[in-house]
Amino acid sequence: MDELQLQELIRKTNEELRPNLNLESVDPHNPVVINHYPTPWQKVGTGNYAAVFSHPEYEKVVVKIYAPGRDGFEEEKEVYERLGKHPAYSQCFYAENNCLILKRLKGITLYDSVNQGLKIPKQVIKDIDDALDYAREQGLFPHDVHGKNVMMWEGRGYVVDVSDFLKLESCSAWKNLKTAYYWLYRPILSPLNLKIPDLLLDGVRSSYRFSRSLLDFERK
Fold this sequence. Notes:
The protein is α+β, with helices and mostly antiparallel strands. The chain has 6 helices and 10 strands, in the order αβββββαβββααββαα. Strand 6 (92-96) and strand 7 form a beta hairpin.
C-alpha cells in the first residue's frame, strides 16, 4: 500500500477502531476475547496475545492489536524487522503502541484444512520448512509453529504467526506436526478424504499442550 493509504488507515485505526474496541486476555493459554468492536471493521481472528481486524476499504492489509496487559509487541516488531520481505511471511508496514499493520495473507490454516477434509500438498510443508530455515538465518528461533499458525493458498505454504520467534527455548511443535503429516495424514487421512471434527482436533491439541507442559516441567 502507498504512504497516503497507510496514513489514512493509521488514522482510522486510532480514531475509530481502538477507542471502540473492548479486548481482553482472560487466560494467557487461550485466545484473547473480543467483547466489542465497531463497524465496518471485521474480525479476522484471535491469538493468545492479540486480535486481528480488517477494514473493507483496505483489503490487502490487517490490523493486529495486542490485548491490554499482554507482552510481546516489541518482540514481534523486531521479528518482522529481521524477516523483511519474504513470500512465506507477512510484511509489517507499521508498528506502534501495541498495534501492527500487516500484509494480509490469503489462505486456510492447516488445522482448518484437516477439519474440512482438504488435501495438503507436500509443497506446502516444504515451503514452510524453507521459511523456517530462512528465519533461522536471520537469527530467529521459530517457535509454536502449529496447525493454526501455518496455512496454504493455491498449493503453497505460509507462516502466519511469528510472535514467538525470539524465544530461545526449543520447540518441537512443527517437527511433531510434520511427523503426523507424513505418518498419519498422507497415508491414512488424505486418501480417505476424512473430515476431522473440531472436538477431536481440539482434544488432540489440548493433549499435546498438556504433554508438552509436563515435559517442560520435568526438564526443570
